[in-house]
Amino acid sequence: MSTAYGLYGHIRSNRIRSAILVAGLFFLVYLLVFAFTLAINGLVIGDQDFDIILSETIWQFLWLFPFATLATALWLLVGYRFHQWMIDRSTGARDVTRNEEPDLYNLLENLCISRGIPMPKLQVIETDVMNAYASGMNDRQYRIAVTRGLMQALDRDELEAVLAHELTHIRNGDVRLMVVAVVIAGIITLVGEIFFRSLRHMRFRASSSGGNRKGGGGGLIAILIAFVIIAIAWFLSLVIRFALSRAREYLADAGSVELTKNPDAMIRALRKIEGKSEMPNVPSGIMEMCIDNKRNTFADLFATHPSIARRVAKLVEVAGGQEKEPTAASS
User: Fold this and answer.
1) How many C-beta atoms surround the C-beta of residue 72 within 10 A?
2) All residues at 6 or more sequence positions from 313 whose CB lies less than 8 Å from its CB, including other chains
3) By C-alpha distance, which of 20, 44, 40, 36 is closest to 68?
4) Catalytic one of 100, 109, 158, 166
5) What is the bridge-based pairing of β-strands 132-135 and 143-147?
C-alpha cells in the first residue's frame, strides 16, 4: 500500500514540476524573441551606444510580445492538429485492428479494462528494430505503437509489460506533455536557425555596402549578448526536454509493474530491447517518446532516458524484480 501511495505521490509532484518546466519553455520563446530583436538592432543601428540599442530593443520587444504569444499559440495548435500525422509519417506507424493483430490487441484491451482506461488505438511499425512509444493529446488521439521486431522478440508477458509501460505514460499525462514540449522546443530551434541565417545575411549586406560606421559602437556588444542569450536558451531547452523525459521512464516502469504485477517481465523486456532500439530515420523529438532512446549526448549527463541498467536496478530495488543473466536470445 505504501508503494502505491509513493507512486501516486511521485506522479503528482512530477506533474507539478512538468507544468513549471513547460512554463519555462514558454519563457524561453520570449527570451529568444528579445535576443533576435537585440541582434537585429545591433546590426541596423550598431553605430549607436549600447544603452540606446537596448532601450530600442525593450520597446520593440514589448510591441512584439503579443505577436510572439499568438505565434506560439498557433504553433501549438498546428502541433495539436497535425502532430500524429507527422509522427506516423516519420515512423511509418499504421493503425491495426483486432483482426490484424489479435494477440497484441487483446493484451492492450485487457490492461485497459482492468483499470477502466479508455483504449488507445494500436499501431505497428514494420521494422526489425525493438521499440515502442505512445502518442496523442487526448482520448481520441492516443495511440500506442510497437515495432514488428519487438513483437517477434518478446514473449506474451514481456510484451504486456511494454504495453503497460506505454499505457502508464498516457495515464500520467506524459504523452501530452512531451508533445507540447517537443513542439515548443521546435520553436526555439526554428528561431535560433532564423537568427543565425539572418545574421549571416545582414553581415554580408553590411560588408558589401562597404560602410564602416563610427559612433558608439554598441552593435557588436548587442550581437554578442544576443548570441549568448540564444545559446543559453537552446541549452536550457535541451535540459528541460531531457528532464521531462528522463524522470518519467522510472514512473512508467513502476506503472507497468503496478498494472501487470510482474516486475521480472519488465526487466526481461528492457534487457532484450537494450542496444536494439535505434530508429535511424526517426527525428530525435520522437525518439524521446520511445521506451528506449540511445541518442545520448555528453555521455549520460544529457540522456533523455536513464540507462537500461539503472532502470533494471530500480525495478529490482523498488519492485522486487530479479535480475538474471541475459540469455542468448537477448544478447
Assistant:
1) 18
2) 323
3) 36
4) 166
5) antiparallel
The dihedral built from the CA positions of residue 175, 178, 182 and 184, taken in this order, carries a sign that is positive
pLDDT tens for the chain, 331 residues: list them: 444 545 566 567 666 766 776 777 778 888 888 998 998 898 888 888 889 999 999 999 999 999 988 887 887 788 778 888 989 998 999 999 999 999 999 999 999 998 888 999 999 999 999 999 999 888 888 999 999 999 999 999 999 999 999 999 998 888 887 777 777 766 676 666 666 666 666 555 555 444 444 445 688 899 899 889 888 887 877 777 666 666 788 889 989 999 999 999 999 999 999 989 999 888 877 888 899 987 655 445 556 678 898 999 989 987 777 766 544 444 4
- Delimit the domains of the chain by residue range: 2-85+179-319, 94-171
Instruction: State in words which class domain 94-171 has.
Output: alpha beta
**pTM to 2 decimal places:** 0.77
Q: Are 176 and 137 in contact (CB under 8 A)?
A: yes
249 has catalytic annotation: no
